[in-house]
Design goal:
globular; Alpha-Beta Plaits; 38% strand; alpha+beta; 2 domains
């Protein structure tokens, strides 16, 4: 069983609106009592949503949370909660979905070293790895990201739905712009210690191809950077 919590923040909660993703993650831990952080059952996923001047946080967890601390942290917040069994999700009909992911892959450089790169973002680096003459020889950003999501789906028990568009099939998925989170290890002014975490929103329709794998993926999340608001796959019956 998974628990969903939609926390709508009051307009006066400016502190929450300007928190860095990891700082927000640390505050959300308070909703899960005194369980040890290493315990699998305490793991949760979250996504910070902004729509005009309305800010909300969607949290998914295995453990049922207690948000009573919000009375002190963000008084006036509205919390809506529901529980669902991911194994009960049917694969008969397409599902509307949203995923904020950190799409990264590991690639081998000409010198033999392996490094992670952000799919569709580090195009100059990818050009060097693939040894292509021009950036124009690389696939488009959208195509690279769609391919990444499709490969995830093959492993996680889902496929992006498609529809006929004349003589060809069109994937029912939209790819949003990059959202970059800049982290610094030590010197706040140095660029050498800077780490960039890139997130991308995927929205569209999917079909469940393996209920067990899909349920596991929903619980564990998709991709990396889950402590930074990535990985939560939300679905609704279309």
């Amino acid at each position: 069983m998974l628990h969903l919590s939609l926390i709508t923040l009051p307009r006066e909660s400016l502190k929450w609106r300007f928190l860095k993703p990891y700082e927000l993650h640390q505050i959300l831990w308070k909703g899960f009592g005194n369980l040890e952080r290493g315990e699998q059952k305490k793991r949760f996923l979250y996504r910070h949503n902004e729509l005009n001047d309305v800010h909300s946080v969607l949290v998914q967890s295995v453990t049922e949370p207690d948000w009573s601390f919000l009375a002190n942290e963000a008084d006036g917040s509205i919390v809506q909660m529901k529980s669902f069994n991911p194994l009960a999700i049917s694969g008969e009909k397409p599902l509307r979905f949203m995923l904020r992911a950190n799409p990264v892959v590991t690639r081998k450089y000409p010198d033999g070293t392996k490094r992670r790169i952000a799919v569709g973002s580090d195009r100059k680096r990818l050009q060097k790895i693939l040894n292509v003459e021009s950036l124009s020889d690389l696939p488009s950003r959208e195509l690279m990201l769609m391919n990444w999501l499709q490969k995830c789906g093959e492993k996680k028990g889902f496929a992006i739905a498609s529809a006929s568009n004349g003589s060809r099939e069109q994937m029912l998925c939209e790819v949003g712009p990059n959202r970059d989170i800049i982290l610094r290890k030590h010197d706040q002014k140095s660029t050498k210690d800077r780490i960039t975490i890139t997130s991308v929103d995927f929205t569209g329709m999917l079909k469940v191809t393996d209920v067990q794998k899909f349920a596991t993926a929903m619980q564990a999340g998709i991709g990396r950077a889950r402590s930074f608001g990535c990985g939560l796959l939300s679905v609704a019956i279309g």
